[in-house]
Specification:
single chain; alpha/beta; Rossmann fold; 2 domains; 8-stranded mixed β-sheet; 26% helix; globular; binds zinc ion
Amino acid sequence: MSDDRYHRQQLIPGWDQDRLASATVLVVGAGALGNEVLKNLVLLGMGHLVIVDLDDVESSNLSRTLLFRETDIGRPKAVAAAEALQEMHAAVRVTALTGDLRFVLGLARLHACTLVLGCLDNQGARSFLSRMCLLAQVPLLDGAMWAQGGEVRAFLDAEGPCFDCTLTPDERSDLWLRFSCSSGFRVDTNPSAMATAITTTAIIGGLLAQEAVRSVVGQSIENGNALVYSGQSCRMHRATLHRDPICPNHAPLDWSQVVPLLATADTLSAATVLAHAHDELGEAPTLNLGRDLLLHFTCPACGRGEPVGRVQGLISATAAMCPHCGAERHAQVTSTVSEDDAWASWTLAQLGVQPGDVFSVHAGDQVRLFAVPFEEV
Ligand SMILES: [Zn+2]
Ligand SMILES: [Zn+2]
């Protein structure tokens, strides 16, 4: 049918529009590269796009971002991109998640995706995303850019290399320390402005979307392959990345052991989860949040206290200064919930647990894993 929106691409041998329409593709980063990739995916008719980004649109983005307008300056990138995509093609589903990928992107939500495309601008986030994709057992195609070039790397499963395999053990532990979700106050990084232009972004975004299509329709993609483009020589070459035998990331979660919860994070209390686990496991259980929760500030100088109840990694270290006397306050932090903790009566949402998160409950040497519901993908 020539009146079909996808008629021309369906003439391509091996094309499978139904597979594209039923795929959920997660795009992490809605900057310049993310814009190019998302524009391609929505035109191709990918069924569901999930966008994660932490930032707001700035005027310096507008030279390289098809989906943003001047009126979007100051708005969250994920939301502005989602609206533009929806305008381009109303039938494509788009989900926008605004926030740090460590805290807004639950492992169960990731596990439900067909494919993940990394459109990030820093190594810490790349390393974290690669580790999450291995746990979630979802293939990752990672795009990277430099002044006059870029590359697309395929990290498909635990058998092949992951992003961290490309680092030395020292680089790896350094990144983990600086970009961890489990402890410490928020670390504000101001990545230095990178020299870049839309022409190179469009080439790398095109390659990334092309590899995404090949992956979704089931064509074979070489695990650990890097497709490298040099803008100076206008050449492209392939490189093979190797798995580091001592890289600790290659142990995917056993998803058959993950129990889906039926109630949402904002209605279910930790006490309810613990009571059920106590009945099942026969001894007092502990719920592990997997991240530090800042419960309370106490000022040692003026004695004033302040209840907080937020994930510590979302709070700037400057918040520890007492607003009354300026002294550094003591932060009461926990990463666990037991039956007799005062915060056991809080809902999972109040404890910083997000839709789609996976958390564990331990009792003795028994462990249970639970997945929090999220909107259907
Ligand atoms: Zn690895
Ligand atoms: Zn004080």
